[in-house]
Structure to design on (119 residues):
């Protein structure tokens, strides 16, 4: 069993910053790609950013230049630094990770963190 526990998020004003963290735990042999998704009310879940085990990053066009994804492999943690926040960034943010457990591969999700940006 692999668990992802998110922290951070909350309320920020437009133009402000927030940081999300997501720590993986459980029967983990290796973690491949870690990702952040978000889902706003009435909208589909969308990919925000991803980072591979080789630290290759990718971003949705809507957050490029404003959000930064990073990871600490020793801590099995992925971060999302969100700067220059906009009202339209308001959503529930989910972390996701895939990799190999000690017995089986895994694809795990965090519980979700609410991010609310006010004008």
């Amino acid at each position: 069993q692999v668990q992802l526990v998110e922290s951070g998020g909350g309320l920020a004003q437009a133009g402000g910053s927030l940081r999300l963290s997501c720590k993986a735990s459980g029967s983990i042999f290796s973690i491949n790609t870690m990702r952040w998704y978000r889902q706003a009310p009435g909208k589909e879940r969308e990919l925000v950013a991803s980072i591979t085990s080789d630290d290759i990053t990718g971003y949705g066009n809507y957050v490029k230049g404003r959000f930064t994804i990073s990871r600490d492999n020793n801590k099995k943690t992925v971060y999302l630094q969100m700067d220059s926040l906009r009202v339209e960034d308001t959503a529930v943010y989910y972390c996701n990770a895939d990799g190999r457990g000690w017995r089986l591969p895994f694809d795990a999700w965090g519980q979700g963190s609410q991010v609310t940006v006010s004008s």
